[in-house]
Amino acid sequence: MARAVKVTIRVWPTAAEVAAGAAELFASVVGAAVAARGAARVAVSGGTTPKAMFALLADRSKPYFARVPWQRLHLFWVDERCVPPTDAESNYRMTDEAMLSKVPLAAVQIHRMEGELEPEIAAARYEATLRTEFSLEGAETPAFDLVLLGMGEDGHTASLFPHTAALHEMGRIVVANHVAQKETWRVTLTVPAIEMGREVAFLIEGAAKAQTVQDVFCGAYDAEAKPAQLIRPKNGRLTLLLDAAAAAKLPQLAGADCAEPGSTRVATLELK
Ligand code: 6PG
Fold first, then answer.
1. Is 119 touching ligand 1 by the criterion CB < 6 Å?
2. Is the C or the N end of the chain the one with fewer CB within 10 Å?
3. How far from the centroid of its chain's Cα atoms is residue 149's Cα?
4. What CA–CA distance (Å, rounded) separates 129 from 149?
5. Whose alpha carbon is nearest atom 15 of ligand 1?
6. What does the DSSP assignment read for the chain?
7. Protein residue closest via CA to atom 3 of ligand 1
């Protein structure tokens, strides 16, 4: 029986406002983690959606930069393409261009997945990195302070693609995953590593994903076909940060108005 999860859905009119909402979440979670535990460990996604959030965090004219205790932050990724860090496809490169090259994070605070290596070697080395950084013992799973996820139109998240082997991996925290539909390998956190996150949030934008958002969060449970449904955080909480376009088919939000810029609509749903 899957764990019941309360999903908080926050919707802004535009993608730019979602990016600001995500930057606000990032700054507040990192600040609270440092205040509580002296450090913050965040796992971010790649793709394109997080770019605007990264740019806001790195922008010294915006309120977020000064609020992030950069010297106490360690940054990780939820997945990586099996390419060198200089490749246009690299999630690390995207993050470096959008943020890392502009913020005071030392190299020892940046933990990239080594996409240039053989996939299984990269996965094993990343698992070793997580075991060291989180001082894991035995079968312990890392508890990131924040896991920021994206979602594809096919319902994948991280590099947990439909009908791929990694969906079923419950023993390891990082694996290499062959993605036949993309004829490629990926390195990805597994479901247990994501679900242990103290805060887990999906950042999803665009009309092209509206049907998938409805199918994943309101439709029948079919995690093989919609892997984002696998993510049921152990703490029973999940946040969706959406623009109005991606939220357009969510019945919970029907009628709620967020016409004025900067407003957010908030709804909740229960994943049974
Ligand atoms: C990746 C990401 C992946 C991403 C989704 C959404 O390696 O591509 O980690 O899980 O979050 O594919 O991508 P977009 O933000 O580009 O729509």
1. no
2. N
3. 2
4. 20
5. 49
6. -PPPEEEEEEEESSHHHHHHHHHHHHHHHHHHHHHHHS-EEEEE--SSTHHHHHHHHH-TTSHHHHHS-GGGEEEEESEEESS-TTSTT-HHHHHHHHTGGGS---GGGEE---TTS-HHHHHHHHHHHHHHHTT--TT-----SEEEE---TTS-BTTB-TT-GGGG--S-SEEEEEEGGGTEEEEEE-HHHHHT-SSEEEEE-SGGGHHHHHHHHHS---TTT-GGGG---TTSEEEEEEEHHHHTT-GGGTT----STT--EEEEEEE-
7. 158
Q: Which domain holds residue 33?
A: 5-271
pLDDT at 261: 54
As a residue count, the chain comes to 272
Q: How far is the CA of 47 from the centre of ligand 1 (A)?
A: 4
Q: Is the CB of 164 under 6 A from ligand 1?
A: no
User: Residue of the nearest CA to atom 8 in ligand 1?
Assistant: 47
Total domains in the fold of the chain: 1
Average pLDDT, the chain: 95
CATH code for the domain in which residue 211 is found: 3.40.50.1360
